[in-house]
UniProtKB/TrEMBL annotation:
Residues 1-20 form the signal peptide. InterPro entries: Galactose-bd-like_sf (IPR008979), TAT_signal (IPR006311). This is Glycosyl hydrolases family 2 sugar binding domain-containing protein. It comes from the Bacteria. Keywords: Signal. The keyword Hydrolase does not apply. It comes from Streptosporangium fragile.
Amino acid sequence: MSMKSLRCLIAGLAASSVMAATALSVSTPAFASGVEDTRQLVVTALDYNSTGWTYLQVPSAADVPLFYERGFDDSTWQTGQSGFGTATGCSFNNPTNVKTPWAVNTDILVRHWFHIPRDAQQVRIQGTVDNDAQVYLNGHLVQTAKSGHCKTGAIDVVVPAGYLDCCNLLAIRGHDYGGSTYLNVRVTYVKPTQS
């Protein structure tokens, strides 16, 4: 089994566990009887402070071609937990939010596989970066986030449906310009339900 296939399998199993737990914990309002009960369930496929990220810190001018492609070999990269950053700086630069160090005045390249079901809709990537980021899904640039300093929620994009697969690669290049660093994201989707 290839490393990519193994990661997809692990991501799929983790996603299934999260889906099951979320489905059990979400309540929805009752609807009048006789009316079709169509609900939407927001599911987290990859959460803040998640483990299993591969990452590489590089000088800001370093060219790492195609690191965001699905077939890129990241087997020599380190593995860590998000958020990435410094222990001091903005309000979220603290041990609760920063799990893996990211040096000031460098770029960080991060990659993570996640699984979604075929009927997933409105796949959304959200997060915070200090300073800027390029966000890719399955090799497609989906957002360039320019947050300046500590702008919460600067990463926020709904991925075009044509970019999605069941097993997906999220890749981000975070840029820092001094002071402090931070990067933490999550991926959610909407799953239609009927009862």
